Amino acid sequence: MSETPVKQQSTTAFYGQAVASFAVAMAATAIGIFRLNADAWVRGFLAIAVLYLVTSAFTLAKVIRDRQEAGQIVSRVEQARVEKLLAEHDPFQKL
């Protein structure tokens, strides 16, 4: 009667690729800032800006994921209510 959605889970390869990609991007950025021909305070400012950008991106991704999961929960509750009403309804019962 009710269809339970299949749990979506990333593969190990996808997870590994995402971690490796993040590590390479952070390392390349750190090397670029370190090798930049500028004063130390400029390099420090850029390093702090990159860290702030990364934390903001993680927060945004979490907020988007949480909102999507909350929407799925609301849909499941509404679907359960409809199924309960349909199961309890007797079309041949006199009003």
TrEMBL record:
This is YiaAB two helix domain-containing protein. Residues 14-66 form the YiaAB two helix domain. The lineage of its organism: Bacteria, Bacillati, Actinomycetota, Actinomycetes, Kitasatosporales. PANTHER family: INNER MEMBRANE PROTEIN YIAA, INNER MEMBRANE PROTEIN YIAA-RELATED. It comes from the Bacteria. The chain crosses the membrane at residues 12-34, 40-61. InterPro entries: YiaA-like (IPR038972), YiaAB (IPR008024). Signal peptide: none annotated. Keywords: Membrane, Transmembrane, Transmembrane helix.
